[in-house]
Fold this sequence. Notes:
Elements (H helix, E strand, L loop, with lengths): L1 H7 L2 H22 L2 H4 L4 H11 L4 H10 L1 H10 L6 H19 L3 H29 L7 H58 L1
Main location: membrane
Protein name: MotA/TolQ/ExbB proton channel family protein
Membrane topology: Multi-pass membrane protein
Amino acid sequence: MLAIFQAAGWPIWLLLIASIVATALIIERLMTLRRARIVPPNLLDEVVRVYRSGSITPDITGKLETSSPLGVVLSAALRNVNAPREVMKESIEEAGNGVAHTLERFLTTLGTIATLAPLMGLFGTVVGMIEIFGSQNPAGANPAQLAHGISVALYNTGFGLAIAMPTLVFYRHFRALVDSYVIQMEQQAVRFVDIVHDSRK
């Protein structure tokens, strides 16, 4: 494997770095974007219980805010329980935008790697081809040696595609997951607003 990397030329080392970065980001996102960590079950019920008990304190809202992304959104609503519905919804929307931005962390980088990897592979192949044909003597070119050189250069393209395909799959998966979490948090926050304002009637 090392011999292939050495023969394929310097561009393949850039692809190796890209693959390491992509793998690290995928592992980090898999660990971070777990449902129980983002949208903990029964958290809304606990917040409703706190609201109905009348024991809302800065300490409670602070702990709620640091507990999870859903906690950030619900704590924004909890701080404005005495405000009009529109104010509560605005605070929820503002908190939700911040949470969505946090959940999308590294996804742009992952998408960039998925897009660039095939191009980097193609670039490496072109560089390899240029070097191969530039080093050939027109009068005494060896077809077998030329074919071997071309096959080695094509490793760049193959490696670039091998990086891009799984990276793109995970990028799309994480994007869909973030969108799903944002919708769930919005639904739970709206439900809390409805509970608060129904209790005022």
